[in-house]
Structure formats: structure tokens, C-alpha cells
Amino acid sequence: MLSNLHAAQSWIDFPANRRDREAIRATPAFAWESRWRQVDRSAEAAIDGITISRWEDPRGTSSHEATTPKDRYFIGIALKTTRAKLTRDRQIIFDGTMPAGTLYVSAPSQSLGAQFQSPCAFLHFHIATDHFPAQSPASEGLNDLVLLRDPLAAELAKALIDRGHAADHQFMCCLGQTLAMHLARLEPPRARVNALPKWRLRRVEQYIADHFDRCISLSELANVAGLSKMHFAAQFRAATGYRPREYLLNHRIERAKTLLATTGRPLAEIALAVGFSTQAHFSTVFKRISGESPARWRLASKGDRGEALPRSRPAVERDWITSAAA
Question: Which of 24, 122, 132, 189 has the fewest CB atoms found within 10 Å of its own CB?
């Protein structure tokens, strides 16, 4: 079950209006996939064994399957938060929430099935095996590897989207090589942590939804889940991609967005209503998560819906949205 927080439109610097989206679709920086992981060869731009493509599906549910070519690695970077289940040969590789910035890898000649339970958007890197040293420490771990919210992957995806139509082939090749080097130098993953069972996760999510407006400790949430603090924190992150504290803050910000978009309440009042002790702390966290201040976000939200702003609030120039995976 995907909570309201997970379903939020969490993009990596993805334009918010139709005109900007149409402009991105026109960019030659990467090919748009006709089907999941399938690029029209006439539109494919492969430079030095590196192809970058984009996949976007607005449907609530979708299922796909593909096999990685024998001479390439497949790397996906989530551009928005989605709920996904990855499988190979009936074995579940991942089942949970993929925050924006999540990176996953499939090795050459390996099949991968994907089921998405919410709208999704990804950048896909198809990189020749030559870019991955055979004797690298991570060579055996580059299959079915899932890194939740990998900071470097998120920044590389953001850099490509930021560059837009100005992204030439040399720039794309550089990004692909950087990503390959990053993966080749990763240490082999440690023992896998099981995700928090769904019934425990639902209890914790509901508890946060009911009490987000006050201080909630890690011990408190662990007790709700019926686990020790250490085991709860690790399993919660494996299930959601968030540390418990990050999840609580994101939940508060999503609730604040609802109040900003639907009411004219002052920012200080909204800050207190969603669990922040001061407006300053609220504004700092809001900008870190959303990429812009509460006031600017409120103006943008009202503007997108064509609504007039309340006379008591001054007009504020809208900034470019630069939210990235935290």
C-alpha cells in the first residue's frame, strides 16, 4: 500500500508545467523509450558504448519485463518516488517504495521484471561492459543491486535534466562514465536487511499520520512496530527508503503543502499545526525537501490552478523548482 507521502510528486528537478515538459521531450539529450527499456534504434544516441534513455508511465499500475544485452549493464535512476517490485526468475529482488534518486542495476544477459504500483519516471543508462573493470571489487555485486536514494546518481540525473537541449554527446558520455566508475568502486553490499513487514509498516504509518503534529521519538515508533530501535530503523529504511526521522519530516511537509494550497492560514500557524516549534525551522526543512520556500511554493501552487492569491499575501516571484533526493 502506497501512503499519501510516498505518492507525492517527488521529482528530481522535473519541470512542473506542460510547456516545460514538452520542451524536455524535444531535447536530443536522450531517447524516449517506446516501451520499458526499449529504445527506438533510429532515435538512439550511443556514444562510446553509452546510451541514455528515459521512461515515464503515468498509469497507476504497470508490469514490464526485459533482458539486458550480453555486452551491457542496465542502470535505472528513479526521477520520482514510486512503488515498485523487481523480480528475476520468480525471485523478489526488491519490493517497496523507491524514492527519487534510487539506483538499481541489472547485469548483462540477465532478465528483470518490474511491477509499478504508482506513476513512475526513470532515466536509464545502458553502459558497455568495457566501462566496468572485470577485477573491480564490486564486479560480482553489480547484479540486482538496489541503492535507495544514491546521492551521486541523483545528482547525475539532475545534471542531465538541467542541461536539457544543451546536453551534447560528450556531456552524456561523461555522465555515463562517471556513473560506471562510481558503481565499479562500490564495496560489495553487506548482508541484506529485510524490509519491515507490511502489517508493521501500516501500523507505523498510521501512527505517524495520527500524531505527526507532536514530537515522536524513535523508541516510540519502534514500540509501535514491536521491534528494538536498531532493528526497526534498519527495516523501516529498507521498506521505505527513509530513516524514520526523514519520513516524519516529509509527512509534515506534505501536510503543510495541503494547508498552503487550500487555506490562507499564516505560515507560523501552519508550522505549529504540522509539528514544528518555529516558523524558521519549518521554512528551513520545507526548502530542503521541496526546493523552495513555503511562500514561493504557495504562490506556485495557486498559479498552477489559476487561482487568485489572497490580498493579504504579497506576490512573490516563482523560482525554478530544484528539488532533489535528500
Answer: 189
Alpha helices for the chain (secondary structure H): 4-7, 18-25, 151-163, 169-184, 198-211, 218-225, 229-240, 244-262, 267-273, 279-290, 294-304
C-alpha cell at 95: 519490493
Q: What is the pTM of this model?
A: 0.62
What is the rounded (10 degree) CA torsion for 214, 218, 223, 227? 160
Secondary structure (3-state) at 255: helix
For the segment 197-230, what is each residue's pLDDT rounded down to a tens digit?
Answer: 889 999 999 999 999 999 999 999 999 999 999 8
User: Which CATH code of 1.10.10.60, 3.20.20.240, 3.20.20.150, 3.30.70.270 fits the domain covering 198-304?
Assistant: 1.10.10.60
* Segments making up each domain of the chain, as ranges: 4-184, 198-304
